Amino acid sequence: MKLIQAVSLAIAFTTSASADILSVHCPLGCPANSAENDLIFGHLYAIPNNPNTKFADWVAYEVNVTNFGDTPGRKWSSDPLLDRNKTLEADDYKGASHSALEADRGHQAPLASFAGSQYWSELNYLSNITPQDKDLNQGPWKNLEAAVRHAVGFRNSLFVITGPIYSANMPSMPGADEEHLVPNAYFKVIYNKKGDTAAFMMQQSSERNDDYCQKAVTLAEIQEAIDFKLPNTLHVDQEIYARLDCQQ
Fold it and tell me: Cα separation of 112 and 124, whole Å?
């Protein structure tokens, strides 16, 4: 595994496969990472880029009101810290929205949560993008991201770990010239510094008008659907669901 650090962060990492990965982006510990992935700690989020799927296994970030602002726009670019053959490129997404996938370029760490940061352009790196069904991306996924922003306040941040799930076969990107694997679902884990957590899973087949609260699942269900370990410091708590306007 190549370890790439874009900013000076408090990171503890050893060659042991069971070592913790610590970052300000995941203060209770990051999920485990495969040795073949490139692990990147950027200014606004942490990602392990998977060279086989061509997408991040997970993305971890803090939702903090100090980063909010007007959406500055989208200008897709390759992550300068990664070899170009390890992610898809902007041209690989051509035709995806009109294919069987009906896919948008879906941010994993959402641009709207960091529009006020001077580093907002990093959100448009292709390493932070996956092909996400447009109804999912513009419907319950977007609404959950907005709910997280509405739930935070000054010195009252929330933290997120999100990523793709590959539990069923999906069509490939029609314009991509690299081998890749399209996710059939996504997970999102939202928590505070005590580890109180709300967990959600959404299929690519989700409808635009679906209620994101109805996508709530257990941490065990997410763990079963992914092949890396989530931090064991997390535990589902109804307080976080309530902050997100979900009554469980």
Answer: 11
Which of 64, 65, 63, 30 is CA-nearest to residue 47?
30
Query: Closest Cα to residue 105, out of 84, 120, 86, 127?
Result: 127
Per DSSP, 131 falls in state E
In the Cβ-directed half-sphere of 139, how many Cα atoms lie within 13 Å?
20
Concerning whether 107 is annotated as a catalytic residue, the answer is yes
pLDDT greater than 60 at residue 163: yes
Evaluate whether 42 touches 119 at the Cβ level (below 8 Å): yes
Q: What pLDDT score does 16 carry?
A: 37
Active-site residue (options: 98, 107, 180, 235): 107
- What pTM, to 2 d.p., does this model score? 0.91
Residue pair 222/202 in contact (Cβ under 8 Å)? The answer is no
Closest CA to 82 of 186, 10, 178: 178
User: According to the model, what pLDDT value does residue 2 have?
Assistant: 52
Tell which residue, 27, 29, 7, has the closest CA to residue 119. Answer: 7
- The domains located in the chain, with CATH, are 3-243 (3.40.570.10)
Cβ neighbors of 167 (< 8 A, separation 6 or more) are 184, 185, 225
Buried b (16+ CB within 10 A) or exposed e, 100-139: ebbbbbbbbbbbbbbbbbeebebbbbbbbbbbbbbbbbeb
3-state secondary structure of 220: helix
8 Å CB contact between 223 and 230: yes
- Contact between 42 and 1 (Cβ < 8 Å): no
